[in-house]
Amino acid sequence: MSASTVDNAVVVTITSATTATTTDGIEFSAINGAELQEQILDYAHHLAASDDQPVLLELRNPATGRGDVIEMTPSGAWEPAHADDPEPEHPEVAPGESSTASPVEMPEPPIADDNWDAGDRSGGSASPSTAAAPPATPMTQPAADEAVDQSGVVETAVEQDSPWRGTTPGHLSVNARPRPASANERRSRGAHVPPPAGGRLRTVWQRHRMPVMVIGLIALVAVVGLGVIAGRLFGASTVDSAPTDPAAAMAPAATADPTSDEVECPSRTTGALTTGRDPGNQTSGPNAIKAFNYGYYKWRSGNAARAVVSSNAKVGTAITLQRYIDTLDPNLRYCLAITEKSKGPGATTLYDVEHTLIPSTGGDRQTFRQDITTTVIGGKYWISEIDSK
């Protein structure tokens, strides 16, 4: 989707590496750039989900003179937004010049020096460098004393011959010559050779190696199983049977943040009761109430809170809401407990909402209640009335 097809736009000015402001007066402050980006994207997602349409977020940085525009969808997905530009024309090709690039010659992989001609192996003619090479001398069978030390020569040929040197150890190249058999190996061939040293035991092992290994593995598994069973039978009395402290067992993990949403105010619904402090949306009455309070306490914006209020609702204007927001502690945390009370005329529903305010300094918590009525307009849930108790 291009930038020209989206009507809703928000301008964010980056004032420093960790702070930013919007055109409607919302200020962002973070401990690093990553957290600042998360706050800005969270705000854009809140506006897109409230209006159920994409939002263009224009980022301006006066310090560098640069800017970016991204598009945030109601589902939370975002991508860079660009205006529709015409495709660049292809440069004209001068007469007599080809428009395709000339082929690039690739070097041949290195091969080991060898007495065989490259043309003989491939069936083609030999290269000029190969044709000029002197004729190879015929190979002679090495003597028995010389054949014993041939293994080192083959290993060197393998290392020099392989084009993937260091990648395929132990694999012989097609150009490496096999090691000639040693004198001892030649003397050990034939049916007339007596059994090797070790006698009948070695012969049995060579002929029945697989069955013996399978039997040994089964015996090992049986021994281990018997040991485990014996340990459970005879060691049960020595195990510490002290009862576990229920409070310690139900305590949260030591690494859990006590001020996190999962610990301090988890989002869940049980029957008619809904709790949490997540951004909410307009898919239900409790979610619309969450969205209003998220804009009120989290974003500290009267406009963000008023975005989920119907036009004729008995709720203060965005300016009035902002006046109350400015008196609150910027680091104040909160938790909502929303209970459905009754259905009203039309598509209205009355909820009992309990607010728990948690001071950032760790003082006593404050609790107050409100009656909030929601209605359905155009398939979305809106707040139509708020009465304090």
Condensed summary:
With 389 residues, the protein is of the alpha+beta class.
What does this entry look like structurally?
The protein is an alpha+beta fold. Among the domains are: 3-80, no CATH class; 261-388, Nuclear Transport Factor 2, Chain: A, CATH 3.10.450.50. It has helices at residues 33-51, 118-122, 128-131, 144-147, 151-161, 183-187, 199-207, 209-235, 246-250, 261-264, 285-298, 302-306, 318-325, and strands at residues 9-14, 19-22, 27-29, 55-61, 66-72, 78-80, 268-270, 273-276, 309-314, 333-343, 349-358, 366-377, 380-388. The strands form 2 sheets. Strands 7-8-10-11-12-13-9 form a 7-stranded mixed β-sheet, with helices on one face. A 6-stranded mixed β-sheet has the order 3-2-1-4-5-6, covered by helices on one side. A hairpin with a 4-residue loop joins β2 (19-22) and β3 (27-29). The longest helix has 27 residues, at 209-235. It is elongated, with a radius of gyration of 40 Å. The protein starts with 8 loop residues before the first strand and ends with a strand. The model is unreliable at 83-177 and 187-194 (pLDDT under 50).
